[in-house]
Amino acid sequence: MSSHKNKTFFNLSLTFSLILILSNLVAASRLIVTPYFTIPGGLLFYPLTFVISNIVNEIFGPEKTRHMVFSAFAGNMLCLIFLQIVSLLPASSIEIANAWHILFDVSPIAFIASFTAFSVSQQLDIISFHFFKRRFPKSSPWIRNNASSMLSQMVDTLIVDLGVVYIGMHLSFTKTLQIMTCSYLYKVFFILATTPIFYLGIRRIPRIYKDNMETKHETLI
């Protein structure tokens, strides 16, 4: 892989990891409540991870995408471990300690649910995106982008909301279903709204380094 491709892949992977880590930190502390809908705070920018994942899958292939997802998973877990270690250390005041625990404490149920949802949905997104690409090679890229994202984020919503909201926050099933519906509708809207970003990525990035988009098999000279 050329140096330009390496840099591009590194930048996309870094952005992917940062969005994932920040989304999980915000999700642990708050819900976003409006007169019209309620969604977990971490959901605000989390769907961007699927956009980046599909851009990487389109340009670099499923293996590099899995590598990116695994690296983000490991980085996110390491971040949470560090936060829990810091939580065990004495703080300068009780107020600061309480504020820290409110912001960064993660229950075991929320931890398991969020990591399971991320792992399952991202793997499903990679598999379904690659399936649509092979099965319908002449179809427009937005079809496989939107179809794979909608399918995988449906699974993500089901796992994380049942785990974090229903079991972890002890909200009623009716309220959980309402949040789940709002969350998924928001994700669908986000997928459709960011379709131009997906197209910009898959068309602009290869032009930067003027390389062939077919990276499944590269020839060493």
Automatic annotation (TrEMBL):
List the InterPro entries hit by this protein, alphabetically: YhhQ
Transmembrane residues, as ranges?
A: 38-56, 68-89, 109-132, 153-172, 184-202
Keyword Cell division attached? no
Q: Give the main location.
A: membrane
Q: Which UniProt keywords apply?
A: Cell membrane, Membrane, Transmembrane, Transmembrane helix, Transport
Which Pfam family is one of this chain's hits? Vut_1
Q: Where in the cell is it found?
A: Cell membrane
Q: Which domain of life is it from?
A: Bacteria
Annotated NCBIfam families? queuosine precursor transporter
The role this protein plays is:
Involved in the import of queuosine (Q) precursors, required for Q precursor salvage.
Protein name (Swiss-Prot/TrEMBL): Probable queuosine precursor transporter
The top of its lineage is: Bacteria, Pseudomonadati, Chlamydiota, Chlamydiia, Chlamydiales
